[in-house]
Amino acid sequence: MMKVSGLSFSYGSKEVLHNISFEAVSGELLCVLGHNGAGKTTLFRCMLGLLKPENGSVSIDGADITAMKPAERARCIAYIPQAARPVFAYSVIDMVLMGMTPRLDRGHLNPGSEERKTAIRILDQMGIADLAERDYTKLSGGEQQLVLIARALAQGAETLIMDEPTSSLDYGNQMKVQRRLKELASEGYTIVQSSHNPEQAFVFADRVICIKDGRIFREGKPRDIMDEQLIKDLYGIDVEMISGGEDKARFFLIRE
Question: Residue 135 phi/psi, 5° resolution?
């Protein structure tokens, strides 16, 4: 379990986060919503141990992440970026094997046959084992994102943090990635992601945290808290929420 307690952070005299507290638990897909500049990325950088909060703490399974060594943090928490553009044309399996570095002995930094088998198993888990020998740079955006998730799983971390992981993908690839993330949560992973797409949060998230001006504005299950007023409060637009059934919803901008 990851726990954020009373976290505050400032860049100079500008406070970006104020008294943020929440928990992310095993088997949950937690989605963070908020406008640009609300503090989502800074929050994630604190959760990853890249920034040290002025007040409060971030812990995982009771251990303060700022007291952990980088390799130790990497075995607990994995980060999946929006995109990765390597200089060299690495194969998919080599990209995944890179994620195993924190798990290798210092005297044996080159992955062997067992690590390769593990990488293939993870790729199969993600449904992309057939891409193992392909050039990563030649894949579609959705395929690349699934490879980055596979690389994160190869770290052995059970908490995955993603800052807008589908922002550069088309609608079909967004849904493909989100379904995989939901499946990983059901397998026991803790997944925390940010998104600018309220529809994704409504359909896939188990819980939503809304951040406005560096503070938690609202928190709860999507169907309990997400409505037209929330979208207006977060993004400043009037919308109408049209329900498509038990597991679907749409938000449409109301034209004046």
Answer: -75, 120
Burial of 130 (0-12, 13-18, 19+ CB in 10 A): exposed
Neighbours of 14 (CB within 10 A): 8
Tens of pLDDT, residue by residue over 192-213, are 999 988 888 988 999 999 999 9
The DSSP 8-state label assigned to residue 91 in this structure reads: B
Residue 189: its H or E element: none
Q: Is 196 left (phi over 0), alpha (psi -120 to 50) or beta?
A: alpha
Encode 213-241: b = buried (16+ Cβ within 10 Å), e = exposed: ebbbbbbeebeebbeeebbeebbeeebeb
Q: How far apart are the first and last CA of the chain?
A: 45
C-alpha–C-alpha distance, residues 183 and 13, integer Å: 42
* Distance (Å, whole) CA 187 – CA 181: 10
Q: Where are the beta strands (DSSP E) in the chain?
A: 2-11, 14-24, 29-33, 55-60, 63-64, 77-80, 159-163, 190-195, 207-212, 215-220, 239-243, 249-253
Q: Are 38 and 212 in contact (CB under 8 A)?
A: yes
| Amino acid residing at 66 | T
Domains of the chain, first to last: 1-76+157-225 (3.40.50.300), 78-156 (no CATH)
Tens digits of per-residue pLDDT, 60-93? 999 999 999 988 898 899 998 876 677 688 999 9
Residue 21 in tokens = 């507290």
